[in-house]
TrEMBL record:
Residues 262-303 form the EGF-like domain. PANTHER family: COLLAGEN ALPHA, MATRILIN-3. Its main location: secreted. The lineage of its organism: Eukaryota, Metazoa, Chordata, Craniata, Vertebrata. Keywords: Coiled coil, Disulfide bond, EGF-like domain, Glycoprotein, Repeat, Secreted, Signal. Residues 1-24 form the signal peptide. SMART domains: EGF (SM00181), EGF_CA (SM00179), Matrilin_ccoil (SM01279), VWA (SM00327). Residues 81-256 form the VWFA domain. SUPFAM superfamilies: Chicken cartilage matrix protein, EGF/Laminin, Growth factor receptor domain, vWA-like. InterPro entries: cEGF (IPR026823), ECM_Assembly_Org (IPR050525), EGF (IPR000742), EGF-like_Ca-bd_dom (IPR001881), Growth_fac_rcpt_cys_sf (IPR009030), Matrilin_CC_sf (IPR036337), Matrilin_CC_trimer (IPR019466), VWF_A (IPR002035). This is Matrilin-3.
Amino acid sequence: MLRHLPGLLLLLWPLLLLPPPTPAAPGPLARPGSRRLGMRGPAGSPGRRPAPAAPTGAPYSGTGQPGGARGAGVCKSKPLDLVFIIDSSRSVRPLEFTKVKTFVSQIIDTLDIGAADTRVAVVNYASTVKIEFHLQTHSDKQSLKRAVARITPLSTGTMSGLAIQTAMDEAFTVEAGARGPTSNIPKVAIIVTDGRPQDQVNEVAARARASGIELYAVGVDRADMESLKMIASEPLDEHVFYVETYGVIEKLSSRFQETFCALDPCALGTHQCQHVCISDGEGRYHCECSQGYSLNADMKTCSAINKCALNTHGCEHICVNDRTGSYHCECYEGYTLNEDKKTCSAQDQCAFGTHGCQHICVNDRGGSHHCECYEGYTLNADNKTCSVLSKCALGSHGCQHICVDDGAAAYHCECYAGYTLNEDRKTCSAIQEARRLISTEDACGCEATLAFQDKVNSYLQRLNAKLDDILGKLQENESGQIHH
């Protein structure tokens, strides 16, 4: 770098010797109260200066545009009834008048032209006034711009007051294409002049403003600033423009584009909608919520909808709300949720083994079941477990002849008539068998016979005792039955 420094100094030395530039003097009429950019005025006027762009990551916008600098989708011209009032007096040279027409065409290019959007008319004036075309004449940009290009100067005089009065009486009428007061479409007039009015413009402009027409005044070169202030609407610093020559008037077209801009809060990200911002046009918008949410009373934030309460869930049995504003379906006990996640089918709980029945599970219709018990058992109060009803009925008592129940779980054995209960209290022996043994015994007087007889006698004694016992019980039973 150092070895190239001498060469650079030789190249720059002639420039360093030049005197510093003299600041350009302001134009003769550039004074306080005028500016080069107008912002939208009070309520009912076309536009305000756009707000700062929203940071990246703003909530979703219904326009599909991210928040950011003004551009396509952010700024859309508001519908207007717009009348240009252009000075074509002798002081405006032909080339300068061409510049004015270019200025008008460039503003038209920035607007949305159409019967439902902005309508444009042009009033040409000098010492006389001519309405070049009305608001209803052209409904597209190309035909408008061709009509503007055909306008020719009127040459003499500067009757600004007469031009404003003509615009008010003939251009801003419903018959000429202006929309009525119920439409809320702003009425705007832009007057372009380079001289001092030769008539009383103050009172006419005041009547125009009082009728609802918003007046912008553009002064060029020798224009009288005081007259511009008398014409324009308040605040003056937003409605009075000045350029030094017609050569730079075209630069104002982009500034009028901003003036007539209807900002899209959705695209700017200034809407404060919690979920979705929907642009309604003309700078208006409304908020909506994602599916499963409803808009709160503040018309900006959202709350989860209780879809189960709305009864639109489609669940066959049970709807359960989830925290996210969604829901899921469940089924009654004994049912299972089908693949559609809404309907239910009955379960076979007996087959699943989840029934809890001690003995027998019986499936019922509708996915339910009940418990039953084996023979000789009864179902307990819990409807699941079983208790013995009759041990004799169970067949496991072991009695050879007769089983007699003595309660829920007790019993005893008895024998048929002609039999006696053995010592095991279950089996029975026939009484006639003992007697048969005695009759067939050999009557021999041998010791063996005597011993056998003694044995038989002893047996008979025991047998008689048992018979007496049985007879006693029978008598007791008979006496008990008589009492009953």
